[in-house]
Structures are given as structure tokens and as C-alpha cells.
Amino acid sequence: MHYPHTACLGAGVIGASWAALFLASGRSVAIHDPAADAEREVRAYIETAWPTLTQMGLTANATPDAIRFCASAAEAATGAEFIQESVPERLEIKHALYSEIEPVLAPGAIVASSTSGLMLGDMQAGWHNPAPFVLGHPFNPPHLVPLVEVMGNHRTGAGVADAAAAFYDSIGKVTVRVQREVPGHIANRLQAAIWREAIHLVQEGVASVDDIDKAMWAGPGLRWAAMGPTACFDMGGGAGGLQTFCDRLGDQFNGWCDDLGNARLTPDTIAMMVAGAAEAAGGETREAMQTRRDAMITAMQAALKPYR
Prior knowledge:
Blueprint: E1 5-9, H1 13-24, E2 28-32, H2 38-55, E3 67-69, H3 73-77, E4 82-85, H4 91-101, E5 110-113, H5 120-124, E6 133-138, E7 147-151, H6 160-170, E8 174-177, H7 187-203, H8 209-217, H9 220-226, H10 229-236, H11 241-259, H12 267-281, H13 286-304
Parallel strand pairs: 1-2, 1-4, 2-3, 4-5, 5-6, 7-8
Antiparallel strand pairs: 6-7
Helix pairs in contact: 1-2, 10-11
């Protein structure tokens, strides 16, 4: 699916990142956000992201100038063939947006929501006919991290989720299909499980926030950037694969699971983790950390590309 004209509704960091990626793929973008400084922020974001997108080989036939800022969501959606919605995570805001754009949608247009926490069925309540509407949840920042979680359900039009996945694939994304609605979809639940245990380890005095983060990026995070945990454990069993791994370590694994914590983000816990994160940062600004993160992600993407 080519969809040469796209729209981005919502221009925070997620919406701006989507806009940069759509532009880099050679598409035009109409964008709307009610914030007074939205245009300035989006243009600055795209200017910063463009060299990285060029380094990734994505801008050969593209221009960052193929963007148009619109006074309303309806104006941005008019004529767009693929619309990425990234407005705040509040149902009333999303429902109002869907009511505004539904009457102007072009035949065959697809609307995908970037929501990380809301349920597709709940969002569909803002539509008279939700056939064009799917979940298209990215990982931040979308122009660098390839994952998109795609989902339709019985109220989604035939072939719409497949078409959305094909579009994302065509711009270099890696799509996974969510087959049943659960809070947080797939990847956020995996993140939550890991961070919950990281918090528990800090609470129990096992290690510092910094060392727990190091244990992740210098250990399993490296393997998981190449393959998922089940594939890694399958190789950990040697010739016998996952069966041998489970036979050897099953009892220990069950013991680890029994001992995992159930940390909650209470005010005291949040204060503890914020203090730990600040100490780990060692005075580095968030902007500098983000630049360093993006550079590392870009380098990893380039290094892994021949093996995908």
C-alpha cells in the first residue's frame, strides 16, 4: 500500500516523529495540533531527525518541506489516505477527534491510533462506523524504533488491519499483530513486567538504579536486540533446544518467578526511582541523553540490518 498523502493528528513527540518518518518515505504530510507552538516544535523536530533518517538511507527521494500545517483536524484529514492519530490518551479527546474527521474521510482511507494504553473497543465508541479504524501503536521514537503493534477486531473493515500493516512494512517498520485486546497491548506489558522487577530490586536493596539498568543493557538487552527471549533460551539449550533448557533450569526458573516482586508506583516509590535515575544520569541533561540514545539506536539498526 503506497498511500502517497498522509496526515498526522497530534504533534507531540510521537506525532512529530511519525511525520518525520512519513516525509522521509517520500510522502506528503498534513498535520494538525491545537498547540500554539506546534508548527515551530514539529519543524525543529524534523530538522533534528532528518540527518539521522538520511544516515539510515530513508530520505533519498524525499523532502522535509512536503508538510502542511492545518487549522483543524478535519482539514488535515481531508484527502489523506493514511492518518496517524497521536492525540492525548483521553477517550473524550479521541472521540471528539473521530467525530470531527469521520465525515471527511476519503473512501478507503485508514485511521490508525498510536495509543499505548487505551483499548480499541473503547476508542471505537467515538465512531458511527469504525471500519477504517485500527490500532497502530509505535515504540518511541517511531522514526527510529521499528516496532508497530497492529490490531483490528470484528468491527474493523475487512482487510483494513492487513492494509495498515502492509503500509507500515513499506516504510521500514516491523509489525506484530495483537490478536486479543489486553491493556498495554504486547510490548508495554513486557516493559512493565521488567520495570516492576527492577523497582522491586531497588526497594529490596539488591542493587542501585544505575546498576540494574547496566545489568539490562550490558546483558539480556544485547541478546534481545537480536532475538526475543524465547529464541535466546531455545539456543541456550544447546542441541536439545528449548526443551533441554526447560528441563535443566525449569525448577530454578519457577523459583525465580515465585520470588519476583509486585512493586507499585506509590509516591514514595516514584521519589526513590526519580532520585536513583538522577544519580545515574550524573548531571547529563535529558537532551544529551536523548541524542546519545538516538545515535546508539541508529548504529544498532545499521549493524543489525544485514541480518534481518
